[in-house]
Design a protein that fits this description.
CATH topology of chain B: Cytochrome C Oxidase, Chain A
Largest sheet of chain A: 5 strands, mixed
Number of helices of chain B: 15
Shape of chain B: globular
Structural class of chain A: alpha+beta
CATH class of the largest domain in chain A: Mainly Beta
Shape of chain A: extended
Structural class of chain B: mainly alpha
Number of domains of chain B: 1
Largest sheet of chain B: 2 strands, antiparallel
CATH class of chain B: Mainly Alpha
Number of strands of chain A: 10
Chains: A alpha+beta (502), B mainly alpha (540), C mainly alpha (288)
CATH superfamily of chain B: Cytochrome c oxidase-like, subunit I domain
Number of helices of chain A: 16
CATH architecture of the largest domain in chain A: Sandwich
Oligomer: heterotrimer
Order of helices and strands of chain B: EHHHHHHHHHHHHHHHE
Distance between the termini of chain B: 10 Å
Radius of gyration of chain A: 32 Å
Radius of gyration of chain B: 23 Å
Distance between the termini of chain A: 76 Å
Strand content of chain A: 5-15%
CATH superfamily of the largest domain in chain A: Cupredoxins -  blue copper proteins
CATH topology of the largest domain in chain A: Immunoglobulin-like
Number of strands of chain B: 2
């Protein structure tokens, strides 16, 4: 009912052209808070009025004609056509108007482009789907992403009314802070795809191109909070990477710089935390940093983003998982620069013990830090990995037995990445179907599956010999492959011990 | 167009009864007849218009209120992408090719298209291309979701759909090139004696120029998507800075194709408007030759203005200024066209049948779209307007109440000729008024949204944009539903319409305006088996 | 303008639909293959087979119709226009890749090295140590060290081969016009032979590049533009040579008259187009 009322109010306003009287929504370009944005606003109004004037002129002639020169009124058509004088006039007048428009437009363009003599520089890097800010003069560096309240409300079927969220979709966790009346040069680049940084109050937007640097400048006149959004389609969460700029008096700004620098100098806390603490904190971090791809429940998106629930990476070696998260892979960004060791420890521990996973181990900030610097082998995970139970390997199995068993193992251990049909995931997990490894020498494949590679965990420890032999045989004889050979449990054991002997 | 026909008789028709169509479904599959193929194109376009429209309904439903209600963001992006691709390549372009197939041979006095077998292949390749594209909707990772511009690096993140989308573009490109070559050859080679270039109806002229644009640009798009394919699957570095390439390079190539492509959809629109308005104003077109020159100038300019789609990508200042000036120039020939239509109406004796209503709405609403275009040509202002709902409003004004309205006008104008039956004028007018009002409710508020700061291609928005979005969505639903009336009218007319027997001329004195009105309604299976002779009227 | 009376309009055509099915199957198969699906390659081969059957069938039909005198001069003009505009579209296709070469050499590579207005002003900070020069595989040293292809060895020889083939093609045409069938056939044999020799040389050059010089399609922007341009050209030479082979075959069966030989003309135009593209390649890819 409330919405219908609003709608009627709105329609009435539109009918009377009084929309601008309402404070909540704007009908026109905002004037903004910089010299450039004001100049652009004036230019916009000038050209808008020219357009309105031309439109009204043409339409009034047309409607006069439609009203008077109709057959039903008995008007008889005149047969004139082609009049060079008229045609020259209506070519020259628009040309003159265009020249009149081009002159102020050129001035504004030159003003917009003039980044010289800036007093400070900020580098802005677009990521899917957050912004990275680096103050090149003071060394301050942080990431800025959608605030938690908006993020919660914007999930499909969240049940939260966006109107109840302050600054819905236009709020961030860490805003960009700048001093007023200072010429600031922005340098734009991107990590993954093209984004575009737009704060309407500053008067411009600029695309961020991966591998290149674009520039723009601003000098904010008035302290305040100014909001904007990414304006270049950058994937799934393009609509959810807002920008907030807080402009402060220079003194306040300096205080902010000092405080932020002091916090940075302290460095992150690396104290050990209890697993429960890690998991709780990790859940919030997961929602903010991971859920947009791997989804809130860890189920991922088939074909694009792998599930974390029952993921072999998450269930596998904790150090391997940490390394993957630190360095990224394919579309997965390197979180090593985005989160501090404690946050990483928290979110990794959460993935292993939440999202339907029960690995039961944890990693501590110090261990993450060690892996980050690569100086030392990390402290072993808290809970020991269960070694695979001993099984009888002496009996050779038939191809059919191996395949049946292998299918079950494949479903459980491999299909979340390589997909149930063996088609793999682009940029993340290679296809099993037609894979050169699977079609190649048996030894090579066994070695790879035993020891892992990249995101592929080492299955040597977690699978018993029978399961191992079965799943390898299955991949070679199913999923569209027909190599025709098989692997026996006994061979697995001997290969393993050969490796251990080395 | 001021020509009359002399020494043309209908007696020869019966000699050619053996040239009739094949029976059953096969007729449509293996046909080489320009009318059959034109009909296939038009039906295909109408179906795709509803498919693309359904996607638009999904978009407007999700944007009805703030918050995510119906679809995931990724699917929303697929919808905006597919809506555009389907509408551009499946609906508007094929509809105009259909009109060209049906009308150009009739208008220039030719027996058929110059290359009839290739004509058949153009159509079926179009179907194949659209099928490949549509198949991506059901693939792992979803349909392309990077916008119809398919910008890298984003588009390279597409799942299994990527190679299908690329090959679909290849097929659509081959189809368009074949179609365009056919149209150009027909116009240059098949005109009846006396039909000099400067006596051709404007629809034929605009299609001649459009054909040239298509042959020039479709290979460019094909090249661009080929590089996407090799970047993704064959290790090339065209759009990767690490290897010395540049993602922006793709945008240059794309818009070198894309800007003329926009005119591929609008130039034939101009042609149809210039055909219909004189008939219902009962006056010759005011400036025939200046219309021809204006069309040619617009086509020429379209090749040298592409970077105005890219003012914010970081062009050097000289580039920004050059592309701004060049873009502004387009306003001049476009103005000439609008003034010409107005002058054609001036002191005419107008009647307002449905085709005329749609044509007048086209002139008014296209002018509005043109004026916002002029605003965006101003490079510094584009730093505010770019990629907001302002541009969404702009190009929809130049496509929906312009191209689509003119396609509707063409439908009403020529349906009696095609079918031999009269459509129901009352329902036609109802369709017009519903469309004309709702299209403005749909797109006008989007100007406000854009200026107020709402970016395009977002599935959810800040609450201050809620009211206008709701209004826009309501307009969208009414507009979408109204188009079902058109479907009804088309079927009703084919099945006999009002039952009124239509004459050869259909519209008062139409024969003064085009050769097609000298043939019976419906025209014989092969149009002019002996060519009519064109003699100039007193106007020339 | 000839009268329309004699304009030949086929009643129906089955080859276009067959061709469409073939093309669509081939491309869908290729897409599946790229996605790692096991049915991809067989679909592709099947589609290609259908497509080849269509080409053979359609062109045989056209040749038969032409030889039985069903095409008036006006029909011939339509075909010539069709071929002309088709070649124009091909020129535009190559223009994309020449344009790419121009853009990367003159804009993006210098910008990456910090040269020029616009993005060049600051981009170098992202790629410390990268020096803008050509040839390059980019600041990421994509594809590893490689040796660029020189102009004066095999490529120059290839230029001579292709230019000579243009001459022999024209000589054959003169033979056709002068009703000297043996000159026609000799000229065509020479042209086809030179064409395939060119392709063989090109294949050898690619082999050298991949095995000896470290130059591959993955060698950054230099490798990308080099192989894309020369590769598409090489493909067109193959197609042209095959068309000329068909024309040769038809000539030996006594087809073509001085006043009616559209197929020969079209093939010759296409061959000269391929020739001119090569000259562009030789200058912009190999020499400069």
């Amino acid at each position: 009912m409330k919405k219908i009322k609003q709608l009627f109010a709105c329609l009435t306003l539109m009918a009377f052209g009084l929309g601008s009287a309402h404070a909540d929504y704007a009908l026109n370009l905002m004037q903004g808070v910089t010299q450039v944005s004001n100049d652009l606003y004036d230019l916009h109004m000038l050209i808008l009025w020219i357009c309105v004037f031309i439109g009204l002129g043409v339409f009034s002639v047309m409607f006069y004609s439609i009203y008077h020169h109709r057959k039903s009124k008995g008007h008889v058509a005149e047969q004139f056509h082609e009049n060079t004088t008229v045609e020259i006039i209506w070519t020259i007048i628009p040309t003159l108007i265009l020249i009149g428009m081009a002159i102020p437009a050129t001035k504004a363009m030159i003003e917009l482009d003039d980044v010289k003599e800036a007093q400070m520089s900020i580098r802005v890097t677009g990521w899917q789907w957050k912004w990275e800010y680096e103050y090149l003069d003071s060394g301050i560096h942080f990431f800025s992403s959608l605030d938690a309240a908006s993020n919660k409300a914007r999930q499909v079927g969240s049940g939260v009314d966006p109107r109840s969220v302050p600054n819905y979709l236009l709020n961030v966790d860490k805003p960009l802070v700048v001093p007023v009346k200072t010429k600031i040069r922005f340098l734009f680049t991107a990590k993954d795809v093209i984004h575009s940084w737009w704060v309407p109050d500053l008067g411009w937007k600029k695309d961020t191109i991966p591998g290149f640097i674009n520039e723009a400048w601003t000098s904010v006149d008035k302290p305040g909070t100014y909001r904007g959004q990414c304006t270049e389609l950058c994937g799934k969460d393009h609509g959810f990477m807002p920008i907030v700029v807080i402009a402060m008096e220079p003194a306040d700004y300096q205080a902010w710089v000092d405080k932020t620098k002091a916090d940075l100098a302290k460095g992150p806390v690396l104290d050990d935390q209890a697993p429960a603490e890690l998991i709780t904190a990790g859940a919030a971090l997961y929602e903010k940093n991971c859920a947009s791809c791997h989804m809130a429940g860890g189920e991922g998106i088939a074909g694009t983003f792998p599930a974390l629930t029952k993921s072999p990476v998450v269930l596998g070696d904790i150090n391997a998982q940490t390394k993957l998260i630190l360095n990224g892979k394919g579309m997965m960004p390197a979180f090593g620069t985005m989160l501090n060791p404690l946050e990483l420890a928290q979110v990794i521990t959460f993935t292993r013990n939440g999202l339907g996973n029960k690995v039961g181990d944890a990693i501590q900030a110090k261990a993450v830090k060690a892996l980050m610097s690569g100086t030392a082998e990390p402290v072993a995970a808290a809970v020991e990995e269960k070694p695979a139970a001993k099984v009888d390997v002496s009996k050779p199995l038939t191809l059919a037995d191996l395949n049946t068993k292998g299918e079950a193992v494949y479903k459980e251990k491999c299909s979340s990445c390589h997909q149930p049909d063996g088609a793999g995931m682009t940029g993340f997990a290679p296809a099993i179907t037609g894979s050169a490894v699977v079609k190649g020498k048996l030894d090579k494949q066994v070695e790879l599956v035993l020891n892992g590679k990249g995101a592929m965990p080492a299955f040597g420890k977690t699978l018993n010999a029978v399961d191992f032999a079965a799943v390898v045989t299955y991949t070679r004889n199913a999923l569209g492959n027909k190599v025709g050979d098989m692997l026996q449990p006994a061979d697995v054991e001997s290969l393993k011990s050969a490796k251990a002997g080395k | 167009m001021s020509t009359v026909v002399a020494e043309h008789d209908h007696d020869h028709e019966h000699e050619h009864h053996d040239h009739g169509p094949a029976k059953g479904l096969l007729r449509w599959i293996i046909t080489t007849n320009h009318k059959d193929i034109g009909t296939l194109y038009l039906w295909f376009a109408l179906i795709m218009f509803f498919v693309g429209g359904a996607m638009a309904m999904v978009i407007r439903a999700e944007l009805f209120e703030p918050g995510m209600q119906f679809v995931e963001p990724q699917f929303f992006n697929s919808m905006t992408t597919m809506h555009a691709l389907v509408m551009v390549f499946g609906a508007v372009m094929p509809a105009f090719v259909g009109l060209a197939n049906w009308m150009i041979p009739l208008m220039i006095g030719a027996p058929d298209m110059a290359l009839p077998r290739m004509n058949n292949m153009s159509f079926w390749l179009l179907v194949a291309g659209v099928l490949l594209l549509a198949s991506t909707l059901f693939m792992e990772g979803g349909a392309p979701a990077s916008g119809w511009t398919l910008y890298p690096p984003l588009v390279l993140q597409t799942g299994k759909a990527l190679p299908f989308a690329v090959f679909s573009v290849h097929l659509l490109g081959i189809s368009s090139i074949m179609g365009a070559i056919n149209i150009i050859s027909t116009i240059f080679n098949m005109r009846a004696p006396g039909m000099t270039l400067m006596k051709m109806p404007l629809f034929v002229w605009t299609w001649l120029i459009t054909g040239f644009l298509l042959v020039a640009i479709m290979p460019v798009f094909a090249g661009a998507v080929t590089m996407l394919l090799t970047d993704r699957f064959f290790d090339t570095s065209f759009f990767d800075a690490a290897g010395g390439g540049d993602p922006v390079l793709y945008q240059h190539i794309f818009w070198f194709f894309g800007h003329p492509e926009v005119y591929v959809m609008i130039l034939p629109t101009f042609g149809v408007a210039s055909t219909i308005i004189p008939v219902f104003a009962r006056k010759p077109l005011f400036g025939y030759s200046s219309m021809v020159y204006a069309t040619a100038s617009i086509a020429f300019l379209s090749f040298i203005v592409w970077s105005h789609h890219m003012f914010t990508v970081g062009l050097p200042i000289a580039g920004e200024l050059y592309f701004m000036y060049a873009t502004m120039l387009i306003a001049i020939p476009t103005g000439v066209k609008v003034f010409n239509w107005t002058a054609t109406m001036w002191k005419g004796a107008m009647t307002f049948e449905t085709p005329m209503l749609f044509s007048i709405a086209f002139v008014v609403l296209f002018t509005m779209g043109g004026l916002t275009g002029l605003m965006m040509s101003v490079a510094p202002l584009d730093f505010q307007y770019h990629d907001t709902y302002f541009i969404v409003a702009h190009f929809h004004y130049t496509l929906v109440p312009a191209s689509v309205f003119i396609l509707m006008a063409a439908g009403y104008y020529w349906l009696p000729k095609w079918t031999g039956h009269m459509y129901d004028e009352k329902i036609g007018k109802l369709h017009f008024w519903l469309s004309a009002i709702s299209v403005n409710i749909l797109f006008f508020p989007q100007h406000f949204l854009g200026l107020a700061g709402m970016p395009r291609r977002i599935p959810d928005y800040a609450v201050q944009f809620a009211d206008w979005n709701m209004i826009s969505s309501i307009g969208g639903f009414i507009f979408g539903a109204s188009q079902l009336l058109f479907l009804y009218i088309v079927i009703h007319t084919i099945k006999g319409g009002t039952g009124e027997k239509v004459t050869d001329e259909v519209w008062e004195d139409a024969a003064k305006h085009g050769l097609e009105w000298t043939l019976p309604s419906p025209p014989p299976y092969h149009s002019f088996t002996t060519p009519p002779t064109i003699i100039p009227t007193e106007h020339h | 303008m000839a009268t329309n009376n004699a304009y030949y309009i086929p009643h129906q055509a089955t080859w276009p639909v067959i061709g469409t099915v073939g093309l669509m199957t081939m491309l869908a198969g290729f897409a599946n293959y790229l996605n790692g699906s096991s049915i991809g390659s067989s679909m592709m081969v099947l589609g290609l087979a259908i497509f080849i059957v269509m080409l053979a069938g359609w062109f045989t039909l056209q040749a038969h119709e032409s030889e039985s005198g069903m095409y008036s001069t006006q029909v011939g003009i339509s075909y010539r226009m069709g071929m002309m505009w088709f070649i124009f579209s091909e020129i535009m296709f190559f223009a994309v890749f020449f344009g790419t070469l121009w853009y990367t050499r003159n804009l993006s590579v210098p910008w990456l090295g910090g040269i020029g207005d616009g993005p060049g002003r600051d981009t170098a900070m992202l790629w410390p140590g990268f020096e803008a020069k050509w040839p390059t595989n980019g600041p990421g040293n994509v594809g590893g060290e490689f040796e660029p292809m020189g102009a004066w060895g095999l490529p120059f020889l290839n230029t001579l081969i292709l230019l000579t083939s243009g001459v022999t093609c024209t000589w054959a045409h003169h033979g056709l016009l002068a009703k000297n069938r043996s000159q026609l056939i000799k000229g065509l044999i020479a042209t086809v032979a030179l064409g395939f020799t060119f392709v063989a040389c090109q294949a050898f050059e690619y082999h050298e590049a991949y095995t000896e010089m470290g130059l591959t399609l993955g060698s950054g922007i230099y490798g990308s533009t080099f192989f894309m341009l020369t590769g598409f050209h090489g493909f067109h030479v193959c197609v042209g040579a095959i068309i000329l082979t068909v024309v040769l075959f038809r000539s030996s069966k006594g087809h073509f008259k001085p006043e009616n030989h559209f197929a020969f003309e079209a093939a010759a135009w296409y061959w000269h187009f391929v020739d001119v593209v090569w000259l562009g390649l030789f200058v912009f890819v190999y020499l400069m």
